[in-house]
Design a protein that fits this description.
alpha/beta; 11 strands; four-stranded antiparallel β-sheet; PyrdxlP-dep_Trfase_major; Aspartate Aminotransferase, domain 1; binds pyridoxal-5'-phosphate; globular; PyrdxlP-dep_Trfase; 503 residues; 17 helices
């Protein structure tokens, strides 16, 4: 074939991939498959986790890549339906009311449709011009959520980034750059005492990871002492900062939790703010999970004092029930919005139009190209109103309290925390294990969880307390009921009994 002929042939082969009619047919097939799947999952039918060993799933995924390509509209719609079916039948069914596992929600399905609009039309937003309405939707959400946190309208700044880990890192990078004004260009000072980061003793691992990334060193993360509810002890924090100041150690930030991951402990943010203000230290709050409490008149007291923080992160893909990833960063002082990254890129940012550069997200985020990540939240909010978020928080928090009460009332269960939100850790301790040592008891929890989740009956997750493995539930589906929780306890009993008989 001559070059023009081969290009024509290539164009002909490309054409179906961009055919709007074909997209319509495939789109209908996908939305039907998703709606059927949701109906089944939400009703609690079928397994929660479709357990397959990684090798089986990789083999299936690889086989699909080796399939013969298809061309006609009908064939494409059939192929897409088949592939979507494969994804669904091998996936994790977060929408099952028997999913009570990680802090990842049964997302509001319509949020996914708004995400899909951003994906299908591809609105990457390094600069405003490349995703003008996606940028505007993000800015509208930043303003609304920031005000929910109690920041003064017009005086704070924020943006969306790809996940809570990156959000925390960005805030701590800003804190570092504010403390060491020349650090971005010259690196972390090498002479004198090494700078430290003081963090909630059970902060998410991404906080220590940030210290590694920022050149502070993970060994220079000081774990703030916790009280018996696993919250930062403010007087111990005061003592730590007093000592560090006396030793001339630079303190990059204090990172508090709202809430910390293991048991959902919310720090007393006003008390932490008092200490930070006294010592002139940057206060950061990781509100990845708990930020949503701001929507609930019943629970928003958990965040009292958050408006005094210099930086805050909040994952909408946790308790605002939108699909991953959509993480918000906030700075109390909007002047800090360009402190994390200082870059010239004349091929991208137009210095002759600084007013517009204000809306170029790439100036503030690590990402250059960025998914239109706020569309799901924006569309859900604009469709159902903010009462939905209030209700989601209130229902899931209340249900978790019921779970705690059930665990507390049962002789064979041991709750490990009195939940402040929708996270509760516990152990199943049948009579035969009451005198067991920690190693045996911990191993039993791990084996029991594996047996349970691979059965597909429920999905719960592991944790540990004082180094001894335990079980953990986060109620992330508002359609979970008291009956499901009773069923969970009974399922653990039945499986636990069988397990201990097999030992
Ligand atoms: C308190 C807290 N911070 C940060 C993260 C990390 O967020 P992401 O998974 O979006 O990176 C998590 C994840 O569960 C978390 O619980």
């Amino acid at each position: 074939m001559s070059p023009p002929d081969s290009l024509a042939a290539a164009r002909a082969r490309i054409a179906p991939a961009y055919d709007a009619g074909l997209f319509r047919d495939s789109g209908h097939a996908v939305s039907d498959a998703l709606a059927d799947h949701l109906a089944e999952s939400l009703s609690g039918e079928g397994p929660v986790l479709n357990w397959n060993a990684p090798a089986d799933n990789i083999a299936a995924a690889t086989a699909a890549l080796r399939g013969e390509p298809v061309g006609s509209n009908d064939e494409v719609a059939d192929r897409v339906r088949g592939l979507v079916g494969e994804i669904l039948k091998r996936g994790q069914n977060l929408h099952s009311p028997r999913y009570i596992g990680h802090q990842v929600p049964a997302s509001v399905p319509i949020a996914g449709l708004f995400d899909a609009v951003g994906s299908v039309t591809n609105q990457p937003m390094a600069i405003y011009e490349m995703g003008p309405f996606a940028s505007a939707a993000e800015e509208a959400c930043v303003a609304a959520l920031g005000e929910k946190l109690g920041f003064d309208a017009g005086s704070f700044a924020g943006f969306v980034t790809h996940g809570g880990s990156l959000a925390n890192t960005t805030c701590l990078l800003t804190a570092r750059n504010v403390l060491f004004k020349k650090c971005w260009e010259e690196g972390v000072p090498r002479s004198g005492p090494q700078p430290v980061l003081v963090a909630h003793g059970e902060s998410h691992y991404c906080i220590a990871r940030s210290a590694g990334l920022l050149g502070l060193g993970t060994r220079n993360v000081i774990k703030a002492e916790l009280n018996d509810r696993r919250q930062i002890d403010p007087s111990a924090l005061d003592e730590t900062l007093t000592r560090l100041r006396a030793e001339g150690v630079p303190i990059v930030a204090v990172a508090a939790g709202a809430c910390a991951t293991p048991i959902g402990a919310f720090d007393d943010l006003n008390a932490v703010a008092d200490v930070c203000e006294k010592h002139g230290v940057w206060m950061h709050v990781d509100a990845a999970h708990g930020g949503a409490a701001a929507f609930s008149p019943t629970h928003k007291h958990l965040l009292d004092g958050v408006e005094r923080a210099d930086s805050v992160i909040w994952d909408a893909h946790k308790m605002l029930f939108v699909p991953a990833l959509c993480a918000f960063v906030f700075y109390k002082n909007r002047e800090h919005r360009f402190e994390a990254f200082r870059q010239d890129a004349p091929y991208l940012f137009d210095p002759s139009d600084p007013g517009l550069a204000e809306h170029d997200s790439g100036m503030k985020t690590l990402e250059c190209t960025k998914r239109a990540a706020a569309l799901g939240l924006w569309g859900t909010w604009a469709t159902f109103g903010e009462q939905l978020f209030t209700d989601l928080v209130d229902v899931t928090f209340a249900l978790t309290r019921s779970l705690y009460e059930k665990l507390n009332a049962a002789a064979d269960f041991e709750p490990l925390n009195d939940p402040q939100c929708n996270i509760v850790a516990f152990r199943y301790v049948p009579a035969c294990l009451r005198d067991a040592n920690d190693a045996t008891l911990g191993r039993f929890q791990q084996d029991l969880r594996r047996d349970l989740v691979r059965s597909g009956r429920f999905y719960i997750v592991p944790t540990a307390k004082d180094g001894v493995p335990a079980l953990r539930c986060t109620v992330m589906n508002p359609l979970t009921t008291e009956a499901h929780l009773d069923e969970l306890l009974n399922e653990l009993r039945t499986r636990g009994r069988a397990l201990s008989e097999r030992r």
